[in-house]
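Late entry, evening session. Most of the bench is empty. Finally got around to the prediction I had been postponing all week. Sequence below, unchanged from the version circulated by S.P.
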Amino acid sequence: MTRNAATKATALLAASLAFAAPAVAGDRAMIDIIGYSSDYRYFAFEEFGMQDGSGFPYSNIYVLDLPSDSWVKGTPVRVRIEDDSANSTEAQAREQALAEAKPKLEALKIQESAEWIAMNGDGEAGDGKVLKFGSPGYFFNDPQGDYTLTLETFTAPAGEEFCSGLVDEILGFALTLDDNGTSSELHRDTGKLPASRGCAMAYRIHGVVARPATDAVHAGVAIISVLPYGFEGPDRRFIAVPLGN
C-alpha cells in the first residue's frame, strides 16, 4: 500500500469509527503566548496537548513575521513524542519544543510580553464569529477605540487529498476588522487550503493579543481557532492573523 493510500485508509477508518459512536472527542490544543520581539516585528506562540488516538504529547511553536503575515523561516517548530509506553508527558514535549525553538527566539530577540485583551471563551454562548474590543483603558477607564472582528467561512478546496469523502464540507475563512466604521479585510483564503490546516470543518475567533498598555491594533494579533477533523473527532488548533503594523 502506498503512503497516500495508507493515509486515506486511516482517515476513512477514523471517520467510520467516529460516526458509528454516539459521541466523538478530538484533542483540544491549548495555547500559550510567548511574546513579541523587541521591535514588535515578530510574534510567537505555542499550541500543545495530547494527540487524539495515539495519546502522544505534542507542542508546536509558531513565530510570525507581522508585516509580511508569514511564518519565519525555520518555523513552526513541531515536537511529538511518539512513546507507546505512555510515559511521555505534555510537559516533556513542551520543554523539548522550547529548547529547539530557543535559538530562533533568541536570534529574533523575542523577549517582550504580550497580553490577551479580548476573548471569545469556549464556555461563552455564541458562534465566535464576532468579537468587539478596544485598547485597554488605564486601570478603571473604559477601553479606547471601537474595533470589531468579523469571521466569515466558506467552502474551499482541501489541502489534503484524503479529506474527500471524510467530511461533508471543507471550509476556509476570511477575517475583517472594522475600525470605528472603516472596514478592512485582514485575511481571505484563496485556492487550496494549506496542508497544515488539514480537513478544516469550523473556525472561531478565539481572542486578540496585543502589546501591554498600547494601541490594540499596532502589533495586535487575532487568534483564530480552527477545527480540523482528527482521529477521534474535530481537533482544535490555532491560526494567528496580524491586525496592523
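Two things to note before I forget:
Residues 1-24 have pLDDT under 50 and may be disordered.
The longest strand covers residues 144-155.
Will write this up properly tomorrow.
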